[in-house]
């Protein structure tokens, strides 16, 4: 979502996060105008058409000619199952919110060039229509870049397959052409939802925290403004969101309403923040489009928490300026599948860090859509400025289904594993192919090359520009792990280990902020150290794709012979020395409820329930231990579970018992020793 101080949300200011210091939070709420992009207060009322405009003398919005302000909450439709949308929205409305803020994720709807998806979790129109039914005005943020802690900031990976050197978010003709095609698919679907056409979309964002981007390309911004309004047709307000600092002018667009974003860490300088906003927009209502009641979390750092009372107090301060505000996030949800992004610390002290699967965000509602202490305090504050609706909530039960044993059934790198789970034929090339060159969204790539006679014993293997993590094998025996996060790009190989070098590379999530071209795979040289101090480059690679898409895993599971299991000698291994293993199991459900998959004791991998990819787990890295399992995925009777484990299982003895996981009733997002308390 944000850049700048909001970008501090996306860019994270990782050093502060890991030192336990406060992170600069910045929010900018989006604002709407139906009549005229200039925000003129000359409003012509029409009994049949709802009007939304700006009074620049009174510095307020006008809804049907009357002063209006909104208190909104962010909820991204792609972070909850469609069957849960109405429940989440109703819980938000019960807190007094009168507006909904949501992004549109280009990559979800356009996963491959020329291919579009508008069904299931991608049914954006249905989501917005439900929001209207639940009595929300809507702040729509179509990007096309959204950040949002999503893979690639929501930009499709295939842009970099099609145009390897494309300059996204600039006036690059190739980028403009692709955005134009995307908007031609997206925008007409939303026309009936615009407030000027009788719907409830009051505002549509142009770009996203652009002032934090290096380009400062106003030709591009002006083009995107015009391209957006070609479909909006002055039937909603166009707006921008930018971090409050001296660069705000880079994000300001002529005839587009400007807002800002900030959180509790900057509430003490709120007057200065409003001055920054007034420097680019002297009149009009004040808007904080992203007020952060929580924060995002990366693997291998402490979970980010924000004090509920401080959040409520800061919200009250913002509202005291008669400002409109959007709480980002009000409901965070989950980065299902491989959708979680990553960040990169620009000062180099931390480097690349991947976002966890949960997007709980320490938000006002928890990951399962439940109310929290923060919810009750925020609701009290909202009730001081807006009427609270009388809504009775019916939260889903949270149930523990207990222990589930898992049978090791297939080695990913075996002949059987390759035949069932690899996509297409292996590709031969001089240099390793990237994920984008293989037109692969995420998962794994296996790089293999003949290993020459080693000059030294041991010999240093060096892999330049690895993105992101590589398990290194010689003749399918693990010899070590390389990591972009840990900045480990070399390890020793000994003579006599074997004849084939294998690098199994995991995409841990593309950077979602600042760098919008985080292509994946191996991009630098792969070399062996020579006796004379030189380096021997390794070439002639074979690349095998393992996208690990849910449909592929489910088809494989359904075709497994009954009682399928690996050889007992492999099954008894705790450390997976010969590569990832697929484990299968089932569990019985007599009553359906929300639950949490607990893989404590396992290493790192991906989990699937009833053919749905829950996301990445990594209890060894933490702080997230459990994966949220929505009740909507489960059914009374038998339910299936698949783990693709990369490193180790939790089997502790050589006895006949199988490794196992737990299904718990309580989330663990703060490490194994503590449960999430909000």
From TrEMBL:
Record-listed E.C. numbers: 3.2.1.23
Domain Beta-galactosidase galactose-binding stretches: 580-639
EC class of the enzyme, as a word: hydrolase
Pfam families found in the cross-reference section: BetaGal_ABD_1, BetaGal_gal-bd, Glyco_hydro_35
GO biological process: galactose metabolic process
TM region(s), chain numbering: 21-39
Gene Ontology molecular function, alphabetical: beta-galactosidase activity; protein homodimerization activity
Record SUPFAM superfamilies: (Trans)glycosidases (SSF51445), Galactose-binding domain-like (SSF49785)
Domain Glycoside hydrolase 35 catalytic: 60-384
Active site positions, chain numbering: 209 (proton donor), 290 (nucleophile)
Keywords carried by this UniProt record: Glycoprotein, Glycosidase, Hydrolase, Membrane, Signal, Transmembrane, Transmembrane helix
Source superkingdom: Eukaryota
Boundaries of every Beta-galactosidase 1-like first all-beta domain copy: 432-543
Record bears the keyword Hydrolase: yes
Assigned protein family: Belongs to the glycosyl hydrolase 35 family.
Protein name (database record): Uncharacterized protein
């Amino acid at each position: 979502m944000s850049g700048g101080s909001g970008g501090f949300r996306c860019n994270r200011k990782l050093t502060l996060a890991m030192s336990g210091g406060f992170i600069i939070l910045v929010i900018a709420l989006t604002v709407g105008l139906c009549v005229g992009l200039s925000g003129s207060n000359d409003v012509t009322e029409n009994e049949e058409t709802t009007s939304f405009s700006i009074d620049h003398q009174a510095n307020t919005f006008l809804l049907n000619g009357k002063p209006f302000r909104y208190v909104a909450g962010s909820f991204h439709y792609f972070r909850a199952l469609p069957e849960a949308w109405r429940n989440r929205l109703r819980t938000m409305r019960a807190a007094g919110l009168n507006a909904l803020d949501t992004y549109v994720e280009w990559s979800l709807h356009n996963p491959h060039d020329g291919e579009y998806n508008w069904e299931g979790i991608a049914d954006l129109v249905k989501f917005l229509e439900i929001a209207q039914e639940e009595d929300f005005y809507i702040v729509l943020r179509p990007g096309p870049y959204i950040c949002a802690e999503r893979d690639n900031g929501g930009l499709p990976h295939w842009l970099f397959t099609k145009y390897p050197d494309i300059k996204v978010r600039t006036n690059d003709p190739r980028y403009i052409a692709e955005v134009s095609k995307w908007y031609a698919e997206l925008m007409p679907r939303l026309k009936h939802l615009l407030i000027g056409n009788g719907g409830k979309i009051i505002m549509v964002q142009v770009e996203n925290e652009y002032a934090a981007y290096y380009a400062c390309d106003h030709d591009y911004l002006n083009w995107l403004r015009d391209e957006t309004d070609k479909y909006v047709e002055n039937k909603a307000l166009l707006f921008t969101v930018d971090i409050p600092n001296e660069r705000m002018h880079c994000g300001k667009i002529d005839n587009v309403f400007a807002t800002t974003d900030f959180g509790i860490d900057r509430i003490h300088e709120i007057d200065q923040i409003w001055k920054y906003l007034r420097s680019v927009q002297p009149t009009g209502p004040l808007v904080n489009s992203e007020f952060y009641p929580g924060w995002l979390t990366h693997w291998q750092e402490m979970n980010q928490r924000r004090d509920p009372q401080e959040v409520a107090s800061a919200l009250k301060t913002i509202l005291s300026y008669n400002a409109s505000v959007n709480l980002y996030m009000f409901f965070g949800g989950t980065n299902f599948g491989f959708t979680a992004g990553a960040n990169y610390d620009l000062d180099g002290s931390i480097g690349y860090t991947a976002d966890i699967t949960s997007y709980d965000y320490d938000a006002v509602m928890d990951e399962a859509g439940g109310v929290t202490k923060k919810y009750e305090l925020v609701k009290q504050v909202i009730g001081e400025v807006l009427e609270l609706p009388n809504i009775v909530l019916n939260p889903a039960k949270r149930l523990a289904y207990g222990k589930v044993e898992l049978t090791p059934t297939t080695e990913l790198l075996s002949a059987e594993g390759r035949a069932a789970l690899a996509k297409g034929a292996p590709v031969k090339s001089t240099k390793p192919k990237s994920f984008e060159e293989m037109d692969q969204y995420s998962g794994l790539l296996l790089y293999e090359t003949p290993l020459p006679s080693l000059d030294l014993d041991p010999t240093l293997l060096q892999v330049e520009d690895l993105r992101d993590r590589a398990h290194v094998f010689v003749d399918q025996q693990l010899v070590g792990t390389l990591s972009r996060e840990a900045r480990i790009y070399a390890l020793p190989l000994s003579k006599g280990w074997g004849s084939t070098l294998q690098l199994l590379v995991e995409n841990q999530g593309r950077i979602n902020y600042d760098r919008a071209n985080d292509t994946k795979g191996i991009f630098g040289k792969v070399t062996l150290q020579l006796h004379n101090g030189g380096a021997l480059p390794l070439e002639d690679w074979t690349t095998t794709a393992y996208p690990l898409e849910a449909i592929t895993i489910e088809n494989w599971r359904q075709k497994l012979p009954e009682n399928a299991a690996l050889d007992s000698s492999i099954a008894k291994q705790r450390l997976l020395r010969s590569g990832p293993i697929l484990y299968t199991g089932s569990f019985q459900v007599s009553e359906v409820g929300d639950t949490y998959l607990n893989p404590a004791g396992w290493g790192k991998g991906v989990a699937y329930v009833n053919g749905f990819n829950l996301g990445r787990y990594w209890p060894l890295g933490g702080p997230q231990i459990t994966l949220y399992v929505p009740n909507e995925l489960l059914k009374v009777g038998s339910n299936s579970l698949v783990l693709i484990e990369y490193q180790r299982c939790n089997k502790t003895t050589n006895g006949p018992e199988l490794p196992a996981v737990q299904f718990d009733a309580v989330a663990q997002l703060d490490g194994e020793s503590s449960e999430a308390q909000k």
